[in-house]
Amino acid sequence: MIIAVDGPTASGKGTIAKALARHYGLPHLDTGLLYRAVGRQVFLDGGDPDDPGDALGATAFPDHLLDDPQLRDEQTGGLASRVSVHPAVRQALFERQRNFATQAGGAVLDGRDIGTVIAPEAQAKLFVTASVEARAQRRFLEMRERGAGVNLLEIQDDLRRRDERDRNRAVAPLVPADDARVIDTSALDREEAIAAAIEAVDLSM
Ligand code: C5P
């Protein structure tokens, strides 16, 4: 059983994917982390994230980079979004994701193109979304909790920019698969979102 969870940043897809993995006893891969590691590696190399060659070179990042807490910050998210437009970068990360998805016993993957590109045969496909306002508000509270100085309108602008880039790129744009079940978490709390996701997966089986 493969469960694909796609959607924009801060939609709640990571929380949902983790909860589904626990509920169904499946391993989970946050594929955004792979793109974040490439973005971070380009930065460490002093390269240009918009240069396809520099970005491709950074796909050879060491595994321990995946544990770097800095991968989660906004700056790295922006770099990830820039390196992820290059087809060669997506190709270089394909096999790792594909192998995870097709391991015996099944898996949960969350990202942007799991249901469309990485595992189009997934039995359950969720597209988790929420309004920009709701997502910015969540990100704002999350960052404030971590003690970061943050501005709600700046976060909204940044989310809009990233959505725009993810939706409009030529390769593997952020769009729901035809057979995805859409879950809008704008008005749902954590538990409600998880319950809706479990219901959607059960209906897909
Ligand atoms: O989900 P997260 O915010 O960690 O992803 C960071 C960036 O990586 C996204 O903005 C997107 O551009 C890219 N990404 C992608 N395909 C995926 C996962 C993430 O292009 N499967």
From TrEMBL:
Places the protein is found: Cytoplasm
One Gene Ontology MF term: ATP binding
UniProt catalytic activity: CMP + ATP = CDP + ADP; dCMP + ATP = dCDP + ADP
Amino-acid positions noted as binding ATP in the UniProt annotation, renumbered to this chain: G7, P8, T9, A10, S11, G12, K13, G14, T15
Top enzyme class: transferase
EC number: 2.7.4.25
InterPro entries found in the cross-reference section: Cytidylate_kin, Cytidylate_kinase_dom, P-loop_NTPase
GO biological process assignments: pyrimidine nucleotide metabolic process
Chief location: cytoplasm
UniProt-listed Pfam families: Cytidylate_kin
GO cellular component: cytoplasm
Domain Cytidylate kinase: 3-39, 70-201
Keywords on record: ATP-binding, Cytoplasm, Kinase, Nucleotide-binding, Transferase
Domain of life: Bacteria
Protein family membership: Belongs to the cytidylate kinase family. Type 1 subfamily.
Name of the molecule in the record: Cytidylate kinase
Species name: Qipengyuania flava
